[in-house]
Amino acid sequence: MDIIALAKRIEEELQITDSVDTLGRWMSHYIAELITQCETATDIQSRSEAEKECAELIIGLWEHRQNLPHQFRPLANIEKILEGITKLQEEPNPWLRDEELSNPWINFANKSKEINHRIAAISVLMAIAESKFDKTKRWLEETSDALSKEEKEIIEALDCWLNHSNKLLPWNQKNGKTSIASLDPIARFDLVQAELEKMLHELNDEFTKLKDK
């Protein structure tokens, strides 16, 4: 584990803590001071002592990060999103598809479930994209060895999902299919809005078929 890299990341996060957080500000200054001592020590003994003190502090904080303020948790920005994804786990379709038992209302129920699932998936993708996910990815890029196996797997999975979201959203762009992650926020919102409207119109068309029977 690169203790100095982890210390710098924690110190950076503490710097953006609410200004009234006296303990956070003190810890930020203290960690910054230890980092400086590690990097500027002119003799082996001083450097060794500074590195030991820094390591003990950082490892102690890191091992208890789940009980510490928001900024210590690598998944902090997406914790609520992960809760939402868990609740939206796809369940087996309870509606019958047997042609002998099917009828227009069952067909409509199936279509509604399919479209609602797509809308939910797109909405979750948008939530991830707007959650400062780049900040979450930095924990993986800069301090991978400090993360748990589960933390790494979650960040990697969400990153993969974002960057392959063109499979869910087949937008026709001049440069080919585009993922949500690669779009600027305004273009992303406009395209998602258009896709959601398209699906709602599709559902309305299915309902119109029922009225016409």
Distance between the termini: 67 Å
> Poorly predicted ranges (pLDDT <50, ≥5 residues)?
none
Count of DSSP H/I helices: 8
How big a fraction of the residues is strand?
Answer: under 5%
- Total domains, how many? 2
Largest sheet: none
Name a few traits of the molecule:
213 residues; 2 domains
Commentary on this structure:
- The protein contains eight helices and no strands.
- With about 210 residues, it is mainly alpha-helical.
- The longest helix is centred in the C-terminal third of the chain and has 28 residues, at about 185-210.
- It has two domains: about 5-70, no CATH class; about 75-210, no CATH class.
- The mean pLDDT is about 75.
- It is about 65% helix and about 0% strand.
Give a brief rundown of this model.
The chain has 8 helices and no strands. It has helices at 3-15, 22-40, 44-63, 79-87, 104-129, 133-143, 149-163, 185-212.
Lay out the secondary structure.
Elements: H1 3-15, H2 22-40, H3 44-63, H4 79-87, H5 104-129, H6 133-143, H7 149-163, H8 185-212
